[in-house]
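F.,

This is the one I mentioned.
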């Protein structure tokens, strides 16, 4: 997956402050801001509250759906009753691979499918308001899906696209979503196809063949 040039949100890539509808990105409430967060540079995508429903930003289509891993640094700015989400999609079928949910109170869940219906499943991850964390979603052939937080595996399950047999599998888009009535924002930056191994995770990444170097801008 080639994400360089569409996911870091920096000014040298052509992103300007203002609406996040830039360079192929789509949004209803999202903006490009200078967050002031260390490591995020001077441009960050912010998913804002939409009084009419969910706020979102959606990336350009990466091209043909690809098996592999996509990750981004995210920050939920407030624990105020909203639910925030980071997901990967299979645009050709209009189906998500999974949705990683940042719930009120600090827990992280994922969406799966059971009996043809969506279900919410707990992960071992957690989040705190205002604290940056990296979320990675890995979609593999054979109906396999892994979710990582800061390089550590927090969930293994299935790819909804393959589970529903609505496409050949793979991912080609990322989406950030803000559900609920809170006034916080969901910040997304540093999109990459690499993860940083967390403490004790190096052996896991060696087995999986994942890259251990993270490009930061």
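My design for it:
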């Amino acid at each position: 997956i080639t994400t360089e040039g569409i996911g870091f949100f920096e000014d040298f890539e052509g992103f300007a402050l203002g609406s996040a509808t830039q360079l192929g990105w789509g949004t209803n409430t999202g903006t490009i801001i200078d967050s002031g967060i260390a490591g995020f540079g001077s441009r960050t995508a912010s998913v804002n509250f939409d009084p009419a429903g969910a706020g979102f930003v959606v990336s350009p289509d990466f091209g043909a759906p690809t098996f592999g891993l996509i990750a981004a640094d995210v920050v939920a700015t407030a624990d105020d009753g909203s639910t925030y989400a980071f997901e990967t999609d299979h645009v050709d079928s209009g189906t998500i691979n999974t949705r990683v949910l940042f719930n009120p109170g600090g827990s992280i869940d994922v969406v799966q499918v059971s009996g043809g219906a969506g279900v919410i499943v707990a992960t071992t991850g957690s989040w705190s308001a205002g604290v940056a964390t990296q979320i990675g979603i890995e979609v593999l052939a054979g109906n396999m899906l892994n979710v990582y937080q800061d390089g550590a595996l927090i969930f293994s399950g299935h790819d909804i696209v393959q589970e529903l047999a609505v496409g050949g599998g793979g991912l080609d888009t990322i989406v950030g979503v803000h559900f609920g009535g809170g006034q916080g924002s969901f910040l997304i930056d540093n999109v990459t196809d690499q993860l940083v191994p967390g403490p004790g995770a190096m052996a896991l990444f060696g087995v999986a063949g994942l890259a251990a170097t993270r490009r930061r801008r």
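The CA atoms of residues 55 and 66 lie 26 Å apart.

Talk soon.
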